[in-house]
Protein backbone atom coordinates (compact mmCIF):
# COMPACT_ATOMS: atom_id res chain seq x y z
CA UNK A 1 0.00 0.00 0.00
CA UNK A 2 1.46 3.36 -0.96
CA UNK A 3 0.69 6.64 0.67
CA UNK A 4 -0.76 9.36 -1.47
CA UNK A 5 1.04 12.67 -1.60
CA UNK A 6 -0.87 15.79 -0.60
CA UNK A 7 -2.21 17.91 -3.43
CA UNK A 8 0.24 20.69 -2.55
CA UNK A 9 3.22 21.04 -0.30
CA UNK A 10 2.38 22.72 3.00
CA UNK A 11 4.84 25.33 4.16
CA UNK A 12 5.07 26.63 7.70
CA UNK A 13 4.30 30.33 8.16
CA UNK A 14 7.26 32.68 8.33
CA UNK A 15 8.54 33.46 11.82
CA UNK A 16 10.48 36.59 12.75
CA UNK A 17 13.72 35.54 14.44
CA UNK A 18 15.77 38.19 16.22
CA UNK A 19 19.09 37.28 17.77
CA UNK A 20 22.20 39.15 18.79
CA UNK A 21 25.85 38.25 18.25
CA UNK A 22 27.23 36.48 21.29
CA UNK A 23 23.84 35.43 22.64
CA UNK A 24 22.80 31.77 22.75
CA UNK A 25 19.07 32.46 22.47
CA UNK A 26 16.87 34.37 20.04
CA UNK A 27 13.40 35.88 20.14
CA UNK A 28 10.97 34.16 17.77
CA UNK A 29 7.58 35.88 17.75
CA UNK A 30 7.85 36.65 21.46
CA UNK A 31 9.33 33.30 22.57
CA UNK A 32 12.93 32.98 23.75
CA UNK A 33 14.34 29.94 21.94
CA UNK A 34 17.74 28.27 22.11
CA UNK A 35 20.02 28.84 19.11
CA UNK A 36 21.95 25.72 18.06
CA UNK A 37 24.84 25.49 15.56
CA UNK A 38 24.42 23.50 12.34
CA UNK A 39 28.08 22.45 12.77
CA UNK A 40 27.14 20.22 15.72
CA UNK A 41 24.30 18.34 14.01
CA UNK A 42 24.77 14.58 14.01
CA UNK A 43 22.92 12.83 11.20
CA UNK A 44 19.39 14.00 10.49
CA UNK A 45 18.02 14.07 14.04
CA UNK A 46 20.96 14.28 16.44
CA UNK A 47 22.87 17.14 18.01
CA UNK A 48 26.01 17.21 20.14
CA UNK A 49 27.79 20.41 21.13
CA UNK A 50 30.93 19.63 23.19
CA UNK A 51 30.85 23.16 24.73
CA UNK A 52 34.65 22.95 24.98
CA UNK A 53 35.39 26.67 25.30
CA UNK A 54 32.01 27.66 26.71
CA UNK A 55 31.48 29.03 30.18
CA UNK A 56 28.85 26.57 31.39
CA UNK A 57 28.31 28.17 34.79
CA UNK A 58 27.31 31.60 33.45
CA UNK A 59 24.06 33.41 32.73
CA UNK A 60 24.14 32.69 28.97
CA UNK A 61 24.34 28.95 29.56
CA UNK A 62 21.46 29.12 32.04
CA UNK A 63 19.30 31.01 29.51
CA UNK A 64 20.16 28.40 26.86
CA UNK A 65 19.26 25.43 29.06
CA UNK A 66 16.08 27.15 30.31
CA UNK A 67 15.03 27.81 26.70
CA UNK A 68 15.67 24.16 25.79
CA UNK A 69 13.67 22.89 28.77
CA UNK A 70 10.74 25.29 28.34
CA UNK A 71 10.20 24.93 24.57
CA UNK A 72 9.63 22.09 22.16
CA UNK A 73 11.58 23.80 19.36
CA UNK A 74 14.96 25.46 18.87
CA UNK A 75 16.49 27.68 16.20
CA UNK A 76 19.30 26.19 14.11
CA UNK A 77 21.78 28.72 12.78
CA UNK A 78 24.02 28.42 9.73
CA UNK A 79 27.61 28.88 10.91
CA UNK A 80 29.96 31.02 8.84
CA UNK A 81 32.26 28.57 6.99
CA UNK A 82 35.60 30.29 7.63
CA UNK A 83 35.07 31.61 11.15
CA UNK A 84 36.61 29.58 14.00
CA UNK A 85 34.32 31.49 16.42
CA UNK A 86 31.27 29.99 14.69
CA UNK A 87 29.71 33.32 13.75
CA UNK A 88 26.17 33.17 12.42
CA UNK A 89 25.68 33.60 8.69
CA UNK A 90 21.92 33.17 8.93
CA UNK A 91 19.18 31.04 10.35
CA UNK A 92 18.20 27.69 8.84
CA UNK A 93 14.91 27.30 10.67
CA UNK A 94 13.04 25.97 13.69
CA UNK A 95 13.45 22.32 14.63
CA UNK A 96 11.90 20.13 17.33
Sequence-ordered SSE layout with sheet pairings:
Layout lengths: L16 E3 L5 E4 L2 E7 L3 E2 L3 E2 L11 H12 L3 E6 L8 E8 L1
Structure description:
- The strands form two sheets. A five-stranded mixed β-sheet has the order 1-2-3-6-7.
- The protein is globular, with a radius of gyration of 16 Å.
- It is mainly β and 96 residues long.
- It has one helix at 59-70; strands at residues 17-19, 25-28, 31-37, 41-42, 46-47, 74-79, 88-95.
- The relative contact order is 0.22.
SS-based class: mainly beta
- How much is the radius of gyration in Å? 16 Å
Beta fraction: 25-35%
What's the overall average pLDDT, rounded? 87
Helix content: 10-25%
Q: Extract low-pLDDT stretches.
A: none
Strand order of the largest sheet: 1-2-3-6-7
Number of helical stretches of at least 4 residues = 1
Q: What separation lies between the terminal Cα atoms? A: 29 Å
> For the report, how would you describe the main beta sheet?
5 strands, mixed
Q: Using the alpha-carbon principal axes, give the shape.
A: globular
The H-and-E topology, N to C, reads as EEEEEHEE
Tally the beta strands: 7
Please describe the structure with a list of short key phrases separated by commas or semicolons.
single chain; 96 residues; mainly beta; five-stranded mixed β-sheet; two-stranded antiparallel ribbon; 1 helix; globular
